[in-house]
Input
Amino acid sequence: MGLKIGYLLPTRENIMEGRPAAAPILSLAEKAESLGYDSIWIGDSILARPRHDPITLMAAVAARTSEVKIGTAVLIPMLRNPVVLAHQIATVDQISEGRIILGMGIASDVPNIRAEFEACGVPWEKRVGRFLEGIRLCKALWSGKEIDWDGIWKIQKGNIGPTPYQKNGPPIWGGGAVPGALKRAARNFDGWFPTGPDAEGYGKLLRAVRRLTADEGRNPDEVTAAIYLTIAIDNNPRVANERIDEYLYSYYHARPDILKKRQACFGGTVEGAVDWLQEYVDQGAQHIVLRFAGDHENNITKLAQVKEKLNV
Output
């Protein structure tokens, strides 16, 4: 597969800034497609980091675009009943005519996310088991066959309609860079989708994912190597990095220096960003999703043709 470049819509940022209207977000999606981005992404949170609902917004983006892939970065599926989720995703995949990618994760262990799970009636301690069983149940329902299910959820002779446009459902990419996340990606998923670390660390972990995938009897080339990166563009690198620090603190209410150890970030010029992204390409990244720290209209334009500047 050729290199793909994606763009994360600012759903969280717009809510933080008191701008809940969906129309500007959909306009950004249309602009990103017109500029040649390969994919458009939407984050997920209900209470911990309030934003627009990703599944609903995917449907709107699908209706306003025609070519780009549309993904979640990343969906926390345990917050939703998997029978309802399977039905929603199947419908959205039909609306998009097969352009959906599901980035999924188990969520970070921080107090506000634990509180979000409690508010949604989901046991925190059981989240990994619910995560994996919920995905298996979605896939079973996406098959179109009548199923019986006896697990956390109970189904007798159930099936959904419509089934997804993509046979057996959209590809699922697993987030995370801890050992358990690498094993889950190798065993269960169609892609690996972390938020860091630096390029050298990413390459090391990607090679581990490839080895683990082969150990599972799967073809390592069938697991897409993705990465989620945060960027601020400015001719003055100091200003760009200050913008990233302000952005991270506002977004997560945590120290930026700590966050940067878990989330790869770049602040600087377009030329510097190209060099930085090239390091990830050299390590094997196949699909790079860009999250901009503010000034989206300007930044998506400045990096619109970045793929042509990278050596694949």
User: Anything to note?
Assistant: The first strand starts at residue 4 and ends at 8. The domain at 4-170 is CATH 3.20.20.30 (TIM Barrel). Residues 238 and 268 are 7 Å apart (CA to CA). The chain has a mean pLDDT of 97.
